[in-house]
Amino acid sequence: MVRILAQERILRQQVADILQVIDRGGELIDSYPVNLDNREVVSRKLVYTNYRANRINLQVIELRAKMAELETIIDGFSDLIRNKIAVAKENDPRAVAAVIRRASHRFKLSILSLFELSKIPIA
Fold this sequence. Notes:
alpha+beta
């Protein structure tokens, strides 16, 4: 669980960095390992010039709002997982069933939310 949350924080920061470059212009270097020993690293460079820097970038604003919604969904699932782990340690079948019902309901709502999030208007 700790590893998943750490990876999620890294991904959130990477998306925030990309949105900042798109919004303001600039340069971003993305590096990632290409083998199992993490000895070889490949880097990609994103260079973006925002020719309309003084204007509001609606796509970036919409993407940031969608990222906030996605973070809310992820935080909800994280809470459910923590609750499930805590309840599973207690060995109470009714509590486990209640957590599973909540998780199922949350999952169904999240699928609908993710479907709505995927509708990104492109100008």
